């Protein structure tokens, strides 16, 4: 037994050693900023469209929530979704996406209040006289914009009003009401939600040309009349085979000079399939060039991709034989375009989803099983210290684990590297394991993060 003063000294020395030992554990790798964070550092947003059926895909939803700081419902705020029958409004699907954005702390872009497409038959073929159609239009805009008051930051109030030659498109609204339907829609939207920024949005207006001249003249005239218009959306549906938009930055700037914000609202860059390394490299350059054009215009407030993964792109369905248009491939792996976007936004090309996790049930009995989890560093740099997180879909419980420190809270599991497998060189793997209990079906978790960055599952 030591005398008391020596015991105290010994305790102090042991405590100091424990603290020093804890400090010596390599710190978890600092997370690379996301596209949204990089854009925010430049006073912009970087967003993605999404759609309700995709929201059951957990790995997809994880990236949607972490990588982007703005979200746009790709279909669920359109007229056919929100007022399928006259006076009968349905907001369930729109609400689902808006609530998801709010939970993620994302800005919501509302798309769209007045459009000739995805317009229910009762409007397009209703044969309404002008006064009645005007009141139908005002009522629609007012009801939808009021429902989302304070929740939708930007509204595409009018979508695609132009023909390719810059004349007005012959929609039921233009045919019946003339171009005044645009001012009417904007005024109704402003009255319903004075805080929302009101946009007109179109495609093939990204560069200088007849169609963007049409838009330019419209915005100029609306401003002159004092009609509420805050921004112009340039959809940015580009195709490698048709060339980059003509003098895009100059085009964005001339709109900004009219006193409106500008935004790239539906960016995707398609190619004729199959994709190959050359086309993907050109695509990456285009993503970068669009981003640079936006950043060079102080009133260019942000960029939205029209969904972020080739898995959910609208293109193959509409242009057979074309696709591969988005920065992530069909397996949610970042493409060269992703690194190009990061670099253009002032970040490192670093790939935050540079990990792969293979989860296997190695054996299973009545109420127990052995799980094996192989973590691979698929990035280009070493990982120094890691924690792996996933959630069990059922009531599985880790009872005993090895090759990592295991902790579980509810369904959420965290595995922290052991001292000897904390460093994972580029391309290296480590396999960790556990015994667990379960009842019912032993469904595997579908989404994994390493140091809070999404990993590919599989
Ligand atoms: O909901 C039905 C489903 O019940 C049915 O089984 C299925 C069978 O085809 O169709 C589903 O509807 C589809 C809808 O997307 C929802 O997935 C429509 O067929 C399909 O035409 C519709 O496509 C949308 C397209 O607008 C319509 O024009 C795309 O998802 C959407 O991304 C796209 O977005 C437009 C922007 O709003 C405006 N700018 C161009 C952009 C690309 O076309």
TrEMBL record:
SUPFAM superfamilies: (Trans)glycosidases (SSF51445), Carbohydrate-binding domain (SSF49384)
Entry annotation: catalytic residues: 266
Catalytic activity: Endohydrolysis of (1->4)-beta-D-xylosidic linkages in xylans
EC id: 3.2.1.8
Swiss-Prot/TrEMBL GO biological process terms: xylan catabolic process
CBM2 domain boundaries: 348-458
UniProt keyword Secreted, yes or no: no
Record's keyword terms, sorted: Carbohydrate metabolism, Glycosidase, Hydrolase, Polysaccharide degradation, Signal, Xylan degradation
Pfam families in the record: CBM_2, Glyco_hydro_10
Source taxon at top rank: Bacteria
Positions of the GH10 domain: 49-344
Signal peptide residue numbers: 1-30
Keyword Glycosyltransferase in annotation: no
GO molecular function, one term: polysaccharide binding
The name this protein goes by in its record: Beta-xylanase
């Amino acid at each position: 037994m030591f005398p008391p003063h020596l015991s105290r000294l010994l305790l102090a020395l042991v405590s100091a050693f424990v603290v020093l030992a804890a400090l010596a554990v390599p710190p978890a790798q600092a997370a690379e900023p996301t596209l949204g964070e990089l854009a925010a550092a430049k006073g912009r947003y970087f967003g993605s469209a999404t759609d309700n059926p995709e929201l059951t895909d957990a790995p997809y939803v994880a990236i949607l929530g972490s990588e982007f700081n703005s979200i746009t419902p790709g279909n669920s705020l359109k007229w056919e979704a929100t007022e399928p029958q006259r006076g009968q409004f349905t907001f369930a699907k729109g609400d689902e996406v808006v609530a998801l954005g709010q939970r993620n702390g994302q800005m919501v872009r509302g798309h769209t209040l007045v459009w000739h497409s995805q317009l229910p038959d009762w409007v397009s073929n209703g044969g309404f006289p002008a006064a009645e159609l005007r009141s139908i239009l005002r009522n629609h805009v007012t009801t939808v914009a009021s429902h989302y008051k304070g929740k939708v930051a930007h509204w595409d109030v009018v979508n695609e009003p132009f023909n390719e030659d810059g004349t007005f498109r012959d929609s039921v609204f233009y045919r019946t009401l003339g171009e005044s339907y645009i001012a009417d829609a904007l005024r109704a939207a402003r009255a319903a939600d004075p805080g929302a920024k009101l946009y007109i949005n179109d495609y093939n207006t990204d560069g200088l040309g007849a169609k963007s001249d049409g838009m330019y003249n419209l915005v100029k005239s609306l401003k002159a009349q004092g009609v509420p218009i805050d921004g112009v959306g340039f959809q940015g549906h580009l195709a490698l085979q048709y060339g980059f938009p003509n003098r895009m930055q100059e085009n964005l700037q001339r709109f900004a000079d009219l006193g409106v914000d500008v935004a790239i609202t539906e960016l995707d860059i398609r190619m004729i399939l199959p994709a190959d390394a050359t086309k993907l490299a050109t695509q990456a350059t285009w993503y970068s060039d669009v981003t640079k054009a936006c950043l060079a215009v102080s009133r260019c407030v942000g960029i939205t991709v029209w969904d972020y993964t080739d898995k959910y792109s609208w293109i193959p369905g509409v242009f057979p034989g074309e696709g591969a248009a988005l920065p992530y491939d069909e397996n949610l792996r970042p493409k060269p375009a992703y690194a190009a976007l990061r670099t253009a936004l002032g970040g490192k090309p670093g790939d935050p989803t540079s990990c792969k996790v293979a989860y296997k049930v190695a054996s299973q009995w009545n109420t127990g099983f052995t799980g094996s989890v192989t973590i691979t560093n698929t990035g280009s740099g070493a990982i120094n210290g890691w924690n792996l997180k996933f959630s069990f879909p059922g009531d599985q419980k880790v009872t005993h684990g090895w090759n990592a420190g295991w902790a579980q809270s509810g369904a959420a599991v965290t595995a922290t590297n052991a001292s000897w497998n904390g460093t994972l060189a580029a391309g290296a793997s480590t396999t960790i394991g556990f015994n667990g209990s379960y009842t019912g079906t032993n469904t595997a978790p579908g989404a994994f993060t390493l140091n809070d960055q999404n990993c590919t599952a599989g």
